[in-house]
Amino acid sequence: MQTETSPEAVIVKDPHTFCHPEEVVMTHLDLDLHVNFEKKILSGSAKILFDNKRNANQLVLDTRDLDIQKVVADDSDTPVPFQLGDSTPFMGRALSISLKPEIKSVTIYYSTSPSAAALQWLTPEQTAGKKSPFLFTQSQAILARTWAPVQDSPGIRFTYSATIHVAPGLMAVMSAENPQQKSAGGVYHFNMPQPIPAYLLALAVGDFVFKPLDKRTGVYAEPVTVEKAAWEFVDLPKMVDAAEKLYGPYAWGQYDVIVLPPSFPFGGMENPRVTFATPTILAGDRSLTTLIAHELAHSWSGNLVTNATWNDFWMNEGFTVYFENRIMEALYGKDISDMQSLLGFEDLKETVAELGDTSADTHLKLKLDGRDPDDGMNDIAYEKGHFLLLLMEQTVGREKFDRFLSNHFRNHAFHTITTEQFIEEYKNDLIQNDSTLAAKIDIDKWIYGPGIPANCPQIHSALFEAVAKNVDAWKNGTPAKSLNTAKYTTNEWIRFLRYLPSTLTEKQMQELDDTFHFSKTGNSEILFCWLELVIANKYTPNYPALKEFLIQVGRRKFVKPLFAALVKTPEGKIFAKEIYSSARPNYHPITQATVDEILN
Fold first, then answer.
1. Average pLDDT of every residue of the chain
2. Strands 41-52 and 157-165
3. Helix, strand or coil for residue 113?
4. 416 close to 394: Cβ distance less than 8 angstroms
5. Mean pLDDT, to the nearest integer, of 39-51?
6. Could you tell me the maximum CA-CA distance found in the chain, to the nearest angstrom?
7. pLDDT (tens digit, 9 = 90+) per residue, 574-597?
8. pLDDT score, position 5
9. Per-residue confidence band for 11, with pLDDT thresholds at 50, 70 and 90
10. CA–CA distance, 514 with 530 (Å, rounded to integer)
11. Which of 178, 220, 412, 539 could disulfide-link 258, Cβ–Cβ 3.0 to 4.6 Å?
12. Which band of pLDDT confidence, cut at 50, 70 and 90, is reported for residue 265?
């Protein structure tokens, strides 16, 4: 596997960056930042090393809401002229720094805004331990520029180092080589020797501790949570082993997970060496660890081989969902992975229906120019991409497809790839220009066409068929307490709830909740599905549970559809605004922006 640290030249222009990497490309970032919880800012410096390929007279970086105080050349105090461009919605401002041929690096002194979109500052009351404040970043897709001046494009990779100053008693971790003990003085040093794109730049600061699972995996969490998290993730070492057996060595050294406060807007974020994870996966029965398999798979698809632009986002997520399911199959059996795939297919159908089956946004290859790349982060990239790869596997055979994917990860390690490059690779290396195989897959229809192609793989699950029979029996009069659900997994319960009629009486809702205690479950996925039914059927006895869930949990996967369902009725919109007045301070800016749009 390649380990070179020089970034690869980008092949296409990224519409979501101001920079010109074909002229000057950053190669290394060195941060020195102080974390100020009182002011809610990061302040310090960012030293940028770069390759001036064309002897250009300026270096252009991406910034958004940064206060740039001064720029100096190399290791001197010599000021360098700079200029900030006009502000552009969601993209921020270009920072243009004047260069002379002899300048090899620049250091930018700056501070972030208290409202920086990548940063969430939490009070002690918003954490599990209730004793210390907490900070975490979320740089994907183009939010790294809100806390560091960088070339913020997935097609540009750089190494980085950092010195982070925090209050004594707090710990800091980054997407880098991390400490496992607290520093008495509150100063932490980090190094990331492999080149990464800016969206994988990550920082978390808080009162957390580390617990190893084996020699190369472990868990960071607040002291009150760490034992529960370590128990939940006990299979993590096995997941790494299974992933390596599938597609080659893990390239990042250590693989850890940090459990963040519940306001984290996503299920997980695949920051190299340390996955950021939502506490909503701590179900107490190890039933939601498929999310960890997904983030681990990103260590190959996304982190190792990265989409060149956000228009190629499916290259990141479609590959990862496929890989995740293969890990789950290897560890827990085909029944589990098949159920996961079927639930994903249901999500895909729902997303296509929401966007419209002729919408260009249902293509795998997107056209997000002039739009926030977050618009493309939905189940099209994840699930349509996954089913295309599954179709390839079924068409050419698993053994051949696995060799192809292994070669893909090895040949493009620590580099980026476009959709068009992949298509050429697929034609030449996978199907070897076989017209019969090409016709069976019809890759152009999948990538450049709308909706779900007719040749989408069909998956069957005997366990889900049994769930359907149970629901049918209940609809025909069998009491809920008489149904055979004792051994249901999370996937089966999700399928059970999704298969129920959309319209239920209050008596039916009460019977189901009295029997299965959905409103009191500690499993966030099951509770979310139940709360969708609560809203659809205006089941007011569970409104307190709905309100509590939306105030405590900031995961956008749950928050967005629940608020969207509430606002469909006038009384629901009133209730939604009441909930949001309490919930909004707990949400990350990404989630706030999503719900603001729904309610307005």
1. 95
2. unpaired
3. coil
4. no
5. 98
6. 83
7. 999 999 999 999 899 889 999 999
8. 37
9. low
10. 13
11. 220
12. confident
Q: What is the pTM (predicted TM-score) of this model?
A: 0.93
| CA atoms in the 13 A half-sphere facing the CB of 73 | 15
- Alpha carbon distance 391, 458 (integer Å): 9
The gap from C-alpha 394 to its chain's centroid, in whole angstroms, comes to: 28
How far is Cα 254 from Cα 272, in angstroms, rounded to an integer?
A: 9
pLDDT reading at 7 higher than 90: no
The encoded tokens of residue 463 equal: 């366990």
Who contacts 13 (Cβ-Cβ below 8 Å, separation ≥6)?
none
With helix as H, strand as E and coil as C, how does 313-327 read?
CHHHHHHHHHHHHHH
For residue range 322-368, what is the model confidence (pLDDT) as tens digits? Answer: 999 999 999 999 999 999 999 999 999 999 999 999 999 999 999 99
pLDDT of residue 229: 96
Phi, psi of 305 (to 5 degrees): -120, 115
Structure tokens, 146: 């809100």
Nearby residues of 525 by Cβ (< 8 Å), 6 or more positions away: 280, 283, 288, 490, 494
User: CA angle at residue 262 from 261 to 268, to 5 degrees?
Assistant: 90
Q: Enter the tokens of residue 79.
A: 């000021």
Spatial distance between the Cα atoms of 142 and 136, rounded to a whole number of angstroms = 16
Write the pLDDT tens digit of every residue in 362-384: 999 999 999 999 998 999 999 99
Strand order across the beta sheet in which 217-221 lies: 209-212, 217-221, 255-259, 274-277, 268-269
The verdict on whether 322 is a catalytic residue reads no
Choosing from 160, 322, 382, 587, the catalytic residue is 382
Structure tokens at 587: 């949400």
The larger pLDDT score, comparing residue 78 to residue 272, is at 272
What integer is the mean pLDDT of 220-231? 96
For residue 279, the one-letter residue type is P
Judge contact between 113 and 65, C-beta under 8 A: yes
Question: E strands, 308-400, where?
Answer: none
With both helix axes pointing from N to C terminus, report the angle between 385-396 and 314-332 in degrees, rounded to the nearest 10: 60
Residue 370 CB neighbour total at 10 angstroms:
11
Q: Is the distance from CB of 183 to CB of 139 less than 8 angstroms?
A: no
Q: Which amino acid is at 363?
A: H
| Residue 43 near residue 31 (C-beta atoms within 8 A) | no
- 299 φ, ψ to 5°? -60, -20
Catalytic residue among 232, 295, 324, 532: 295
Rg for the chain (alpha carbons), in Å?
Answer: 24
Give residue 10's pLDDT.
43
Q: Which H or E run contains 96?
A: strand 93-98
Local structure of residue 476 (DSSP, 8 states): T
Note if 295 is an active site residue.
yes
For 264, list phi and psi in degrees, rounded to 5.
-55, 130
Local structure of residue 545 (DSSP, 8 states) = H
Q: What does each C-alpha distance from 599 to 264, 336, 467, 565 come to in angstroms? A: 21, 37, 36, 11
